[in-house]
Every structure is written in structure tokens, then in C-alpha cells.
TrEMBL record:
Primary gene name: LOC106052496
Originating organism: Biomphalaria glabrata (Bloodfluke planorb)
Listed name of the protein: Solute carrier family 41 member 1-like isoform X3
Membrane-crossing residue ranges in chain numbering: 55-76, 136-157, 169-194, 206-226, 238-258, 270-290, 363-384, 396-421, 433-456
Pfam short name (any one): MgtE
Membrane topology (UniProt): Multi-pass membrane protein
Length: 465
């Protein structure tokens, strides 16, 4: 490794949870990184106990938030708007995925800035917060609109059917839900990062789980409420849905101008669209799977936000931690631009290495089984859903959840350094992809699990009863 370049470390400060860490930058331009060596060399001296103590409580709170979202979905799936406008199910993963596309990405960006000491000036803090909240509003409006178009295409092309009233409902409810949920959750993320900084807690361990805990519940509740309201307005208040669409369309240029003029967001407003929109498309494929499986297995709805949320949550924590360590090593796009990773990522070093991120991978993976047992038994205790707890159900469900998280953590461990050495900021790119892949894998694995339960059970829609 080369010696530290003072210009690269200007403005960087060592947070209280990384005492004793020596910062260093990577290899000169044009040289290569061995992926396994790079990961083991990343700074950080947190113990497994420290990681567990900081991650567990937010993880459990997040899980119960997802249980709440699952119970909401289990109820609203029988509402008239969901039974008559079935394309709304395709919207669900894409809109719930916004917490990964926008709020958890915002939490990761702010956590990195807090760790580097860039949030200590009130003037700079206000600029950073104002720019980032404007950014997620602009992204939410665009993603909400495109999600509704995707739902229409995926839902209507196979049928060869088109309903203009249902199309306006999908578009208005999607845009309204995305913008309002992002405003609420983005504001909460700012508060969480500031409080974490004040109490000397690593915000990478706390902020993204809290975003996950509130994101699904808030988003799904808003979607169900506004969707039902707009469905009741069909044929009576025909102006309502078009008005919502026009209002948010007029607000979009305002948010874009604010982002362009803000130094903290003027690059992201140009470069941050590819991961967000790609993630939306991946999540929409998960929505297509959900639309099919909900029609065949009643019990799947209550577990879908839980398995997707837990997987995305744990992967986001891991990605956020690695991203912060890489920012402490040097800025992306500095001397490492055009560098590339050499070698295949060793799965044993990912989970059993001696570095701090291997410890984190072990801790996060070990949380899966007890976490899902707690959340699933809570669902059964509250008599939610349409399934009963059985050994067979738990075996298939926990296997699906564990496989999803192992794959996501492995992908995150490879993806974040790859983004960094290519000169992009992982805080803006990695989490949208990871949460979207988590949605797709979680929904697909859950559908497979329920199908096997159906084949081995009593062959009705309640599978394990």
C-alpha cells in the first residue's frame, strides 16, 4: 500500500468508534486490487460483541415494523381496490423498495458524512439536508410515475386490456405514495443520523435498519389509503387522480433546480438515476411474482414484506459499513479510478475471515434464524395470515430466508468495492441494487417455499394448514 496522500484526507476525521485506525489510500492509478486482500485491509476495530449490541435492537425494531407491514398487506389484499385493480400488487415491491432506493441510500450517505466529520457545521448541515431531501423528492416522483407505467405494462400486456381509470389510479397513487413516504422517512433519517452522532453510535449500524422498520409500514399504509380513496372517486370525482399527477409533475422541476444548485447533490441528480431506475425494474419483476403468488396462496402476503425487508435491511447495513470504510481509505474516483478487482471473492473469507467486515457478515447472518423465528411466531400469535405454524413450514421458510441473506451479503461484499474502485460512490449506487435483488430473491424463494408446502400439504391456498 502507498503512503497517505494528505490531499485525499482533507476534511476526514476519525469517528469515536474507529479509534486507533490508520487511514490509507490504495494503489496508484492503473494498478489492481486483490478483492480478498482489499476487504481484509479495510479499517475498523469493532468487536463482534460491539456490532451485535448496536445492530440487534434496530434489527428487531425493523423486523416488527415489517411484521406490521405484512399484516397490513394481509388485510388490504382483500380490499376492493386490490381485487379489482390487481396491477397494484406489482406496485408493492417497487414502492416498498423505495426505502432501499432512496431512504436507506440517504441514510448511508449521511452516515458516511457523519463518520467523516462533515456534519459538524450547522451551515453545511442545512445545505446537506436540504439538498438531499430535495433529491429524494425528485427521485420519488420519477420512480413513482415509472413504477405505475411498469405495472400497467406488466399487468395489461398479457391480458390485452387497458382501463384509463385504473391507469390514472395507479399513476396517482404511486406518485403520491412515493413522494409522501419519502418526505416522512427522509426527515426521520436525518434525525436518526444526528442523534447517532450525538450519542457516539455508529450510524451505519442504526440508520438503515430504522429506515427499513418504518419504510414498509408507512409506504404500504399510504398506498392502501390513497388507492382506496381514488378507487371510490372513480365515476364521481374524476378530477382527483389527474390533479394529483399534475401537482407532482409541476413540483418536479423545482426539486431538480434545488439539487443542481446544491454542492452535495449536484452530481447525484445527474448520475444517481441508473441504480434507482434499475432497482425499480428489478423490484417490479418481484411484483409480478407477487401478483401471481397472492392469487394462488393466500398466506404469502403477510410474509412477503418480512422476508424482503429483513434481507434488504441486513445487506444494507453490511454495504453501508463497507462503504464507510472505503471512504476512509480514499475518495472514489481519486487515485483508484480505472483500477479493477483481481481474483474471485472467496466466500470463506467473506464469512470466516479475520477482518471487521467478516465479523459483521457473521453477525448479520446469525441474526437471520432467531430474527425470523421471532417475527413468524409473532405473526402466528396475532393470528395474522392464512397459514399455521408447523415444523415443515418453518424449515422451508427459514431455508428461503437464510439463502436469501447469504447471497445478498456475498453480493454486497463484492459489489461495494467494485463500485468504489470504478470511481463511483457506493453510498449512491449499492443499496438500491441490493434491496431490489433482495426483493426479487425473497419473493421468488418465498413463492418456491409456498409451492413446495402446497405440494406436501393439503393442496389448498392455505398450504400448511
Amino acid at each position: 500500500m502507498s503512503s497517505v496522500d494528505p490531499e485525499l484526507l482533507t476534511g476526514y476525521s476519525t469517528p469515536p468508534w474507529h479509534t486507533g485506525v490508520t487511514l490509507s489510500v490504495g494503489l496508484p492509478e492503473g494498478e489492481v486490487y486483490n478483492i480478498n486482500s482489499l476487504l481484509q485491509s479495510l479499517p475498523g476495530e469493532e468487536s463482534s460483541i460491539s456490532i451485535v449490541s448496536q445492530v440487534t435492537l434496530p434489527f428487531i425494531i425493523a423486523g416488527f415494523g415489517m411484521v406490521g407491514a405484512g399484516m397490513v398487506l394481509d388485510i388490504v389484499q382483500h380490499w376492493t381496490v386490490f381485487t379489482q385493480v390487481k396491477e397494484i400488487f406489482i406496485l408493492v415491491p417497487a414502492l416498498l423498495g423505495l426505502k432501499g432506493n432512496l431512504e436507506m441510500t440517504l441514510a448511508s450517505r449521511l452516515s458516511t458524512q457523519a463518520n467523516l466529520g462533515h456534519m459538524d457545521s450547522r451551515k453545511e448541515l442545512l445545505k446537506m439536508v436540504g439538498g438531499n431531501l430535495s433529491l429524494i423528492q425528485a427521485q420519488a416522483i420519477v420512480v413513482g410515475f415509472l413504477s405505475s407505467l411498469t405495472a400497467m405494462v406488466l399487468g395489461w400486456i398479457p391480458k390485452g386490456d387497458f382501463n384509463i381509470q385504473h391507469g390514472l389510479l395507479l399513476c396517482a397513487s404511486s406518485v403520491f405514495t412515493a413522494a409522501l413516504a419519502s418526505l416522512i422517512l427522509g426527515s426521520i433519517m436525518v434525525l436518526v443520523v444526528l442523534l447517532s452522532r450525538y450519542f457516539k453510535i455508529n450510524p451505519d449500524n442504526v440508520a438503515t435498519p430504522i429506515a427499513a422498520s418504518l419504510g414498509d409500514l408507512v409506504t404500504l399504509s399510504i398506498l392502501a389509503w390513497v388507492g382506496n380513496l381514488l378507487y371510490e372517486a372513480i365515476g364521481q370525482q374524476v378530477w382527483l387522480a389527474p390533479t394529483i399527477i399534475v401537482v407532482f409533475a409541476l413540483l418536479l422541476p423545482l426539486w431538480v433546480v434545488i439539487c443542481i444548485r446544491n454542492k452535495y447533490t449536484n452530481d447525484v441528480i445527474y448520475s444517481g438515476w441508473v441504480p434507482v431506475l434499475s432497482a425499480m425494474m428489478i423490484s417490479s419483476l418481484g411484483g409480478l411474482i407477487l401478483d401471481f403468488t397472492v392469487a394462488n396462496y393466500d398466506g404469502i402476503a403477510v410474509f412477503q414484506p418480512v422476508i424482503n425487508g429483513v434481507g434488504g435491511n441486513l445487506a444494507a447495513v453490511h454495504a453501508s459499513r463497507i462503504s464507510t470504510s472505503l471512504h476512509q481509505k480514499g475518495r472514489p474516483g481519486g487515485p483508484v479510478r480505472d483500477a479493477h478487482l483481481k481474483g474471485c471473492l472467496n466466500i470463506f473469507k467473506v464469512f470466516f475471515g479475520s477482518g471487521v467486515h467478516s465479523k459483521a457478515a457473521r453477525v448479520l447472518t446469525l441474526l437471520v434464524i432467531p430474527g425470523h423465528l421471532l417475527f413468524s411466531f409473532t405473526i402466528f400469535y396475532l393470528r395474522a395470515g392464512h397459514t399455521s405454524s408447523s415444523l415443515l413450514f418453518q424449515c422451508f421458510y427459514l431455508s428461503a430466508a437464510l439463502l436469501q441473506v447469504v447471497l445478498l451479503i456475498y453480493i454486497a461484499t463484492w459489489l461495494v468495492p467494485l463500485i468504489w474502485v470504478k470511481g463511483s460512490d457506493p453510498d449512491n449506487v449499492a443499496i438500491p441494487y441490493l434491496t431490489a435483488i433482495g426483493d426479487l430473491l425473497g419473493t421468488a424463494f418465498l413463492a418456491v417455499a409456498f409451492h413446495f408446502l402446497f405440494l406436501l400439504g393439503d393442496r389448498d391456498a392455505d398450504v400448511s394448514e
